[in-house]
């Protein structure tokens, strides 16, 4: 099984602040997010894309 890595955690750990703002580093398509970042995401944009994460 492929281990899912929260993209926001990955970006925080692997990219500089400037890189994080660069659209080139944004992961396309549905991305896995940990509970923390998933909750933040839900607060930012409540919509069809904010699907609950099954742990
Ligand atoms: Zn995260």
Shape: globular
Strand content: under 5%
Q: Care to count the β-strands?
A: 0
The largest pleated sheet is described as:
none
User: Uncertain spans, ≥5 residues at pLDDT below 50?
Assistant: none
Oligomer: single chain
Total separate domains: 1
Which ligands are bound?
A: zinc ion
Q: What's the SSE pattern?
A: HHH
Radius of gyration: 12 Å
N- to C-terminal separation? 14 Å
| Helix run count | 3
Give the structural class: mainly alpha
What's the overall average pLDDT, rounded? 80
Helix content percent band: 40-55%
Question: Overview of this structure, please?
Answer:
The protein is mainly alpha-helical and 55 residues long. The protein has one domain. It is built from three helices and no strands. The protein has helices at residues 7-14, 17-20, 35-44. The two termini are 14 Å apart. Bound molecules: zinc ion. Zinc ion is lined by residues 6, 8-9, 33-34, 36-37.
């Amino acid at each position: 099984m492929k281990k899912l890595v929260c993209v926001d955690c990955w970006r925080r750990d692997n990219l500089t602040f400037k890189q994080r703002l660069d659209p080139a580093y944004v992961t396309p398509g549905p991305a896995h997010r940990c509970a923390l970042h998933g909750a933040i995401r839900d607060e930012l944009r409540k919509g069809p894309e904010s699907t609950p994460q099954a742990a």
